[in-house]
Amino acid sequence: MTSVDMSRSMPDSDLARLCAPRSVAVVGASEDDRKFGGRLLKYLVKHGFSGDIVPINPKATGVLGIPAYPSVAAAGRPIDVAIMALPAEHIEASIADCAAAGVRFAVIITASFAEAGVEGLERQRRILDIARSAGMRILGPNCLGLMSPHARLALTPSLSMERPDLPRGGVALVSQSGALMGTMFDYGADRGIGFSLGASVGNQVDIEICDFLDFAIDDPNTRVIATYVEGLANPLRFLDCARRAHAAGKVLLVTKAGRSEAGVAAARSHTASLAGSYTAFSAACRSVGVMLFDDPNSMVEVAGFLCEAPSYREGGAAVFSGSGGGCAVALDRISEIGFPIAELSEATKASLDGVLQESHRHLPLDLGVLQGGWSRANIAAALERTLRDPHVGAGVCVLTTQPLMVETVEEAVKAGREAGKPVIIVNLAGSAGDASRAACRRLGYACFDTMDGALRALAAISFVSGAKPSVRGTVEPTAVPPALDGRIGRLTEHEAKLLAASAGIRVTREIVAVTAAQATAAAEEIGFPVVLKGVSKALVHKSDVGAVKLNLKDAAAVDRAFADIAQAFSTHGIAGFEGCIVQEMGHGEVELFLGAKHDPEFGALILIGIGGTTVELLGDVQVALAPVSEHEALAMMKRMKLWPLMDGFRGRPAVDVTAAARAASRLSELAAGLGPRLQEIDINPLLVGARGAGVIAVDGRATMVAGT
Amino acid sequence: MTSVDMSRSMPDSDLARLCAPRSVAVVGASEDDRKFGGRLLKYLVKHGFSGDIVPINPKATGVLGIPAYPSVAAAGRPIDVAIMALPAEHIEASIADCAAAGVRFAVIITASFAEAGVEGLERQRRILDIARSAGMRILGPNCLGLMSPHARLALTPSLSMERPDLPRGGVALVSQSGALMGTMFDYGADRGIGFSLGASVGNQVDIEICDFLDFAIDDPNTRVIATYVEGLANPLRFLDCARRAHAAGKVLLVTKAGRSEAGVAAARSHTASLAGSYTAFSAACRSVGVMLFDDPNSMVEVAGFLCEAPSYREGGAAVFSGSGGGCAVALDRISEIGFPIAELSEATKASLDGVLQESHRHLPLDLGVLQGGWSRANIAAALERTLRDPHVGAGVCVLTTQPLMVETVEEAVKAGREAGKPVIIVNLAGSAGDASRAACRRLGYACFDTMDGALRALAAISFVSGAKPSVRGTVEPTAVPPALDGRIGRLTEHEAKLLAASAGIRVTREIVAVTAAQATAAAEEIGFPVVLKGVSKALVHKSDVGAVKLNLKDAAAVDRAFADIAQAFSTHGIAGFEGCIVQEMGHGEVELFLGAKHDPEFGALILIGIGGTTVELLGDVQVALAPVSEHEALAMMKRMKLWPLMDGFRGRPAVDVTAAARAASRLSELAAGLGPRLQEIDINPLLVGARGAGVIAVDGRATMVAGT
To answer: What's the CA gap between B397 and B416, in Å, rounded?
Structure first.
């Protein structure tokens, strides 16, 4: 889906009237519910919308017993919202009709606009022009409308409206896909989740995702926002929304399609293989405290859970099950995601005397070995005393086909609420568990049908408890060093290092030599041993072709190396041999990769990885929005899987992580300050010395484009 | 749960009579279905068991209208199976009653046996003795019995029997946990899956998992076996079962509890952190073509699917959805697991003229853009023509809330069966999808409610199509080299390398020196540069304490290094300084880790990893049952994430992988040949030189125990 961001210049920036209109016109209303226009009217009536309903149909005087009009203008009364599902070729006229009649919001279900090629894009532009000149806003086209349960408004032809009710609650759905909006709503409503909004935005010609996010953030009914995104109309506005949601105490969850594109787009360049568009999106989300999901239905389940369950603060998970097998499977899977497992205090164990058999007064709690057999009282006591334990931060209650399922669910929800701790209920049974699922719904508590879902909930409570958007200061524009003034395109290694040095990062001393004689002279000046590297703008990976010679100890070695490198260029058919860099031989304990990249959506990103030339294979790279402080850079390094290599692993020296973090922070400031002019820069490797010995950049690449 | 393997010495090794008995006695039969004995009788009657039902209850002359007897003996007729749910203290007498009456199988539901401490273990032994002497077999105790749908036999108090029917089909469930057996059955039956068996084995005092596996492998009704394992009574018999299942064309799936124990048990020793019990189990399963799951319900879903869907052979996945969002989410997730994504041939695209809008005749197939709108005929044509494409190996049909859901499901199943290709149906809708779920059930086709489940199915069809149990030859016992005769305990590095050398692996030339003078003399003999390493049995990680000095270029350096190492031992308080090994300086391009370990269940394992001393951090280790051939060792190396480092990555030399594979194979033969005497051996690093340059072991550790 494509999108145009013009929303800021439009009137009616508040969507309250769209989500709670006084009057709705259904253009193309029909009595045939196999048609969009038929279902639209049917659902609007069925779900009890109390405002004025105005069917528009040139061929009928009434539809479903409601007086109909040939046009919106002919209806002769104020219309807040007109929704239309007409053939694409009739939309333009209908929009003109609405504009003339002073309609405030037009919702266009019809497809075949921008997503269907040039002709559709033109049509989309024309309707936008008409709407703009009349001050009317547009939702869609190519969307499935919206639902607003607190207003009893079903303004969508989605078949999910076949359900008997529109459950009201605190989850707002904002979805680019109409089918997924309906699906998430249907899936969630079955699980007892109530909604404050279900909005689909389709092509986002005018109203876009962030408009609904702003609405939901301000909406007192909304507590959690679950968003399905394909492409953002305004990425930086999205970051503002995320910060605003956090400040308002609301949780923002996102599923983004196109995660696998990152891999595809990464093929061309070195850094592109580390940071593609989804990488940027996910780094941005982490920076503003937004949790990402890989699955829309799972996101909704978790949203419903977060809405109703007490908040998690700290402590381990306590697993309860009527089945020893259920306990074992749950523990295995919880361990895998790294959520801490609680152990009971001795006092709690003692308090379970009379409740559980002596051999079983520990976590996981096997509710199958209650003293005196299954009883509600003992289940209640076991859950309540365990959840009160200060080591326990959350409960995971795994139901199998077992006695007292309903009672177990009721006691688990009660005990969790009393202890002020979230209890995740996983109902693994089939229809034998339906009565206990119904009990959850009665209690307004979302339960999970799979361990997969429960694990996502555990990950979510942990994420939400720790999420804190970073505060961004103003970024000062940075000037390139004079030697690079006006340089655009791929820089040489030497130029890339000049850029790094201008940010205050130590680089190897080096002299460019065009002849072997210059090279030996340069080596004498720098001091042996030295490194020789062939120079050509055409060569990305120097070590791949034998164009790097390390540890040259005397003039003869330098002379030979120069000749060898020249020969290697010729052998590999690489154009533009410009000589060699003669370079001080750097030393360090660990090879770090530092990169920055300009993302077209989110601006400068900073990348920190371990492994030098093997960084791509290891994939151990952290990404964040630039700039980052030294403190943030250090936190990024600590999230690397191979962080122990920097921290004194197995007798290695602890390395100068302070200097490494400082270099990363400075590079991030450089990238943020240069903005789009610096397309990308890699320092690889940055050698990190022992504590106090600092860092040194021994190789680098960069690409600049003309400033704007 | 604990277990004793005595089954081989018992009569009635065939469980056919247990699974299809002519007569069943219910000991403790009751009319109160809150009691185990009440539910047992109720379910037996309810599900239509046609054999003789004999309630045993000393206080009643009839239960549920069926004549009852005070004891099995008093019933005065042959009883194939007696099932009992009595207080633990009454079991022994009841078993004696059954034994005296010539009962062939006793099923004990009652718990509080071996799992509840010493007293229970004693009780368990006594009942086994009684049964043995009478030639009676025991299932349980601490189990939930079994169900045998083709015999209409519900021999279990599981509440899953509340469902109206026992769906018959080709999935055999064999579960150590009774609650999970009932849960998997209930969950699967709801999804249209039919079963040939549901067996729970509990404490496995006599009949164990492998008895049921053998039964299911020979059972003509069974096509797929889904097994939940906590502990195997006889691991090697399990491997035989797996090979037999594969030969019989049946698929064996396993979920094993205790996966996270591997991490816990790993704390003590170096190699233990790489290979624990679950690691061994999973290596063994891979070797015999068994697919592992992390979740019992997911395993059952996939089992049902494999039972009914055509087999996958080759080709990519074709995604269909009525929602563009559904397509996008599915593609992202399929890409993540590495299943190939299909592209349509030009001929197939052309064949979609008239079916799909021109802009959308490609994969993923958006069924929302059919030409002329939603129609069954176009859906049928789109699915059928796409699945016929030779590039397409499997279909993934993602249903959202959309029109024609039932029709889409019916056409997808039909098209898949006609093309002979598996089609995975994922129904993301809530109750709006119930009619289409029912359609799947009518067609005897398992559908998935989550993308998580669908992904496991894709992984499974790929695994099953490639699974081929390795053939094990006879392992020749190996003698230790004479120098190590009688050596037990932790070997020195030098001794460990003697052992490696005895298997034909090249090790560094080295001389043990007790004094600095001996060290310099040894260095002169070996030739400079040399390496010095401090020797002590108390020291595991030499490099951690500065006890390794590399690249010593002359006698003075050796002399100084010797003193430094002696000092380091003293500084770190390490006992038993025995001098230094003076060692040839090895060279290579890549550091490999080779290990072998004796697993108490599965015998010798071979481990191959990359990263030398960082192998633990990288976790890039492959494990297999030893011995492995050179070919198998090479295949293991190619599965390593960092394999490209050995294969000419970024201009590095391609290394001598043949020599590395040969060394791994030889080490695996050594370990298999020495059996439990060699507890573990690590060669770390094994330096692998450029192609043709061979390998050299530069460090090693090993632990031997007394031979048996």
So the answer is: 11
Instruction: Please report residues of A whose CB lies closer than 8 A to that of B433.
Output: 186
Beta-bridge partner residues of A318: A395
Which of B402, B433, B541 is opposite residue A651, by nearest beta carbon? B541
d(CA B686, CA A105): 71
By C-alpha distance, the chain B residue nearest A359 is: B116
- Residues with Cβ within 8 Å of A193's Cβ and at least 6 positions away in sequence, in order, are A167, A169, A171, A300, A301, A303, A304, A307, A446
What 3-state class would DSSP assign to A423? Answer: strand
Taking CA atoms, what residue in A is nearest to B650? A544
- Flag if B186 and A328 touch (Cβ within 8 Å): no
Residue for token pair 């007897």: B69
pLDDT at A659 over 70: yes
Lookup: tokens for A97: 């009709």
Question: Six-digit token pair at B532?
Answer: 């010095």
> Fold for domain B310-466?
Rossmann fold (3.40.50)
Hey, what CATH topology would domain B7-303 get? Rossmann fold (3.40.50)
Report how far residue B200's alpha carbon sits from residue B230's, in angstroms, rounded to the nearest whole number: 12
Q: Residues A189, A129: contact at Cβ < 8 Å? A: no
* A 164-223 near B (Cβ less than 8 A): 175-180, 182-183, 185-191
- Residue B228 in contact with partner chain A when CB distance is under 8 A: yes
The predicted pLDDT at position A5 comes to 40
Contacts of B618 in chain A (CB under 8 A): 618, 642
Q: How far apart are CA B354 and CA A635, in angstroms?
A: 57
DSSP lists the bridge partners of residue A589 as: none
| pLDDT 10s digits, A456-482 | 999 999 999 988 887 666 788 888 899
A357 at the B interface (CB within 8 A)?
Answer: yes
From the list B182, B295, B451, which residue is nearest A295 (CB)? B451
pTM of the predicted model, to two decimals?
Answer: 0.91
Q: Please tell me the predicted confidence (pLDDT) of residue B201.
A: 93
Residues 613-642 of A with CB under 8 A from B: 613-614, 617-618, 641-642
| CB atoms closer than 10 angstroms to residue A504 | 13
Disruptive mutation site among B401, B404, B616 for chain A (greatest number of A CBs within 10 Å): B401
C-alpha closest to that of A110 among A17, A51, A35: A35
ipTM of the prediction = 0.89
Q: pLDDT digit string (tens) for A376-421? A: 999 999 999 999 999 999 999 999 999 999 999 999 999 999 999 9
E-strand ranges in A178-335 read 195-200, 224-229, 251-256, 291-293, 316-321
**Residue among B335, B541, B650 whose CB faces A543 most closely:** B650
- Per-residue model confidence (pLDDT) at position B32: 93
B442 CA to chain A: closest CA distance, Å? Answer: 17
Statement: residue A307 has pLDDT above 70: yes
Is A406 within 8 Å of chain B by CB?
Answer: no
**Min Cα separation A401/chain B (Å):** 5
Which candidate from B179, B357, B402 shows the least CB-CB separation from A322?
B179
Which fold, A509-584?
Dna Ligase; domain 1 (3.30.1490)
Give the homologous superfamily in CATH for domain A315-466.
Answer: Succinyl-CoA synthetase domains (3.40.50.261)
Domain extent listing, chain B: 7-303, 310-466, 511-584, 590-704
Q: Write out residues in chain B with pLDDT < 70, as ranges.
A: 1-13, 261-276, 471-473, 537, 539-545, 613, 708
Q: How far is B393 from B458, CA to CA, in rounded Å?
A: 11
Same fold, A315-466 and A509-584: no
Q: What is the DSSP letter of A3?
A: -
Region A590-704: CATH code: 3.30.470.20
B511-584 fold: Dna Ligase; domain 1 (3.30.1490)
